[in-house]
């Protein structure tokens, strides 16, 4: 399986270290990781779950490319953190144009309710220090995402 491009490559050593520190502080926060498949059509604004440029977001790809990756309309994707396989279905989009429909699988960590405020507060502090570029927030298709 070819490695997928990420939504944004973080190269600033200060930001890389800051992310490592946030992740270390939040390492033991209980929660669950959810797989969400985001689908939109050419010309539509793509929906944005969680942090749009999360390292857990693969690059957008066409429905045809994603179907090839899965080996059909259902399959499994590995969780990059745990290696655990997660079931994915794109059956509800089986009749959509495979070259004009875009797909982006996103793994999102959801902290338990008792720890959600702490978790979100830590990431908000990080985003105040290292804000996302607004241009990174709205890709309309695979070619609009920086590698």
Q: Any overview of this molecule?
A:
This protein has 147 residues and is α+β, with helices and mostly antiparallel strands. The protein has one domain (30-132). Helix content is 24%, strand content 23%. The protein has 3 helices and 5 strands. It has helices spanning 13-26, 63-70, 116-129; strands spanning 31-41, 61-62, 74-78, 85-89, 101-111. Strands 1-5-2 form a 3-stranded antiparallel beta sheet. The model is unreliable at 1-7 and 135-147 (pLDDT under 50).
Offer a few descriptive terms.
24% helix; single chain; 3 helices; 3-stranded antiparallel beta sheet; alpha+beta; disordered C terminus
Describe the structure in brief.
This protein has about 150 residues and is of the alpha+beta class. It contains three helices and five strands; from the N terminus they run αββαβββα. The strands form two sheets. It has a three-stranded antiparallel β-sheet. The protein has a two-stranded antiparallel ribbon with strand order 3-4.
Write the layout of secondary structure elements.
Elements: H1 13-26, E1 31-41, E2 61-62, H2 63-70, E3 74-78, E4 85-89, E5 101-111, H3 116-129
Antiparallel strand pairs: 1-5, 2-5, 3-4
Helix pairs in contact: 1-3
Count of runs of 4 or more consecutive helical residues: 3
- How would you write the strand order of the largest sheet? 1-5-2
- Element order, helices and strands? HEEHEEEH
End-to-end distance: 18 Å
Relative strand content: 15-25%
Broad shape: globular
- Overall strand count: 5
Number of domains: 1
Instruction: Return the average pLDDT rounded to an integer.
Output: 78
Percent of residues in helical segments? 10-25%
Q: What ranges have pLDDT less than 50 throughout 5 or more consecutive residues?
A: 1-7, 135-147
Class per helix and strand makeup: alpha+beta
Radius of gyration in whole Å, from Cα? 16 Å
Described by strand count, sense and barrel closure, the largest sheet is: 3 strands, antiparallel
């Amino acid at each position: 399986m070819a490695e997928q491009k990420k939504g944004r490559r973080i190269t600033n050593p200060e930001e890389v270290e800051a992310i490592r520190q946030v992740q270390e502080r939040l390492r033991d926060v209980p929660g669950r990781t959810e797989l969400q498949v985001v689908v939109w059509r050419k010309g539509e604004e793509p929906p944005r779950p969680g942090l749009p440029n999360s390292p857990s977001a693969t690059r957008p790809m066409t429905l045809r490319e994603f179907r090839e990756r899965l080996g059909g309309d259902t399959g499994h994707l590995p969780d990059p953190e745990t290696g655990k396989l997660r079931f994915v279905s794109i059956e509800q989009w089986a009749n959509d144009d495979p070259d004009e429909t875009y797909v982006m699988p996103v793994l999102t960590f959801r902290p338990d309710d008792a720890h959600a405020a702490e978790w979100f507060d830590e990431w908000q502090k990080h985003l105040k220090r290292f804000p996302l570029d607004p241009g990174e927030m709205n890709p309309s298709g695979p070619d609009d995402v920086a590698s």
